């Protein structure tokens, strides 16, 4: 009895000092509380904090599922077992993979230029890069909206590659997908008139004549022209072969040789060898100088734009023109429809050497 009294006084002193929690619960509530404590013991969470989190999650779900189902979904799409890879490591893997795929030189250079800067800026784990950080980085590049969108597209491709390799969750959009698209100004399509094209061809020397003719009457890109070999110009078969290794899109295509183009090429054609010799930028400077001598400016990408405009006006098929240009029908239809009339197109495809009549 004496020991019990001593223990009772000690308990009373602790209660008075706030050292003992006094909880009055009914039998059923006490059993539930004790069970909750036992369940939560391994988690380290308290009953009140768990109750608050559950209530908040319950409100967010709005009756569409249970908290456990939500947790399972989160677990599935946010795996903690993903291997860690930095932006630089992903960039190196992506570049190596595209080389193995025989991507075009132009595409590889674009990867090295745009994503090379990305890899230097984002040294940490790619899974930690946020949409806001990507947008802020793109904004610091100091380029126009078209270039920003091109960089954004490559970054999205890089993040998709990371998902394929298992470095990011595969079943959800990446942070790159959510980046804003820059508003691009309406495209200004500058083309040559049939009279201007005639003046250019008559003023130009042998090599430049071939450049102008193939660019204006077959629509090859500048880079594709500079890689072109005479063995790929099949005058007898009536087409130019743009190999996958030399195409911007890394896809082989066959471009028909129109009747007037054949007449411009025959006097200069060789069995094989590079069609255009010299550095691309210097060669382009020589070509644009001819237009100045003729008394008019050289609009950007004018030969390819001219081909697309006059070819579409002639054949009336955006899909056919897109196939010949290595482009999409949507772009062809959007940019080149109704730029020239059928009468102007007829004149364009009759531009031939004077001796050819």
Written description of the protein model:
- With 357 residues, the chain is an all-alpha fold.
- It is built from 17 helices and 3 strands.
- A 3-stranded antiparallel beta sheet has the order 1-2-3.
- A hairpin with a 4-residue loop joins β1 and β2.
- The longest helix is centred in the middle third of the chain and has 20 residues.
- The mean pLDDT is 87.
Write the layout of secondary structure elements.
Layout: H1 2-16, H2 27-40, H3 47-61, H4 67-77, H5 87-100, H6 105-121, H7 131-139, H8 145-164, H9 194-203, H10 206-218, H11 222-227, E1 233-234, E2 239-242, E3 253-256, H12 259-265, H13 280-294, H14 302-315, H15 318-325, H16 329-336, H17 342-348
Antiparallel strand pairs: 1-2, 2-3
Helix pairs in contact: 5-6, 6-8, 9-10, 9-13, 10-12, 10-14, 14-15, 14-16, 14-17, 15-16
């Amino acid at each position: 009895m004496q020991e019990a009294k001593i223990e009772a006084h000690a308990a009373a002193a602790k209660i008075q000092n706030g050292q003992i929690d006094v909880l009055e619960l009914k039998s059923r509530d006490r059993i539930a509380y004790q069970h909750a404590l036992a369940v939560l013991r391994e988690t380290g969470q308290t009953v009140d904090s768990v109750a608050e989190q559950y209530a908040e999650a319950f409100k967010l779900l709005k009756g569409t599922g249970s908290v456990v189902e939500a947790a399972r979904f989160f677990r599935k799409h946010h795996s903690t077992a993903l291997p860690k890879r930095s932006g630089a490591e992903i960039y190196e893997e992506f570049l190596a993979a595209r080389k193995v795929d025989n991507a075009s030189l132009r595409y590889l250079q674009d990867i090295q230029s745009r994503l090379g800067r990305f890899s230097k800026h984002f040294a940490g784990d790619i899974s930690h890069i946020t949409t806001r950080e990507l947008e802020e980085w793109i904004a610091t590049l100091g380029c126009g909206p078209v270039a920003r969108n091109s960089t954004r597209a490559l970054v999205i491709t890089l993040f998709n590659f990371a998902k394929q390799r298992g470095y990011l969750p595969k079943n959800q959009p990446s942070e790159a997908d959510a980046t804003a698209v820059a508003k691009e100004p309406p495209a200004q399509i500058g083309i040559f008139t049939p009279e201007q094209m005639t003046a250019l061809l008559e003023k130009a020397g042998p090599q430049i004549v071939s450049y102008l003719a193939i660019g204006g009457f077959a629509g090859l890109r500048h880079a594709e022209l500079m890689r072109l070999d005479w063995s790929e110009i099949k005058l007898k078969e009536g087409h130019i072969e743009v190999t996958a290794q030399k195409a911007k899109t890394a896809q082989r295509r066959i471009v028909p040789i129109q009747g007037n183009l054949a007449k411009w090429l025959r006097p200069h054609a060789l069995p094989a060898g590079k069609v255009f010799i010299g550095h691309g930028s210097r060669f382009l400077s020589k070509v644009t100088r001819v237009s100045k001598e003729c008394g008019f400016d050289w609009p950007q990408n004018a030969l390819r734009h001219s081909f697309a405009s006059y070819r579409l006006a002639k054949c009336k098929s955006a899909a056919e023109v897109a196939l010949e240009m290595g482009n999409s029908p949507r772009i062809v239809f959007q940019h080149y429809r109704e730029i020239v009339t059928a009468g102007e197109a007829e004149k364009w495809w009759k531009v031939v050497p004077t001796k050819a009549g």
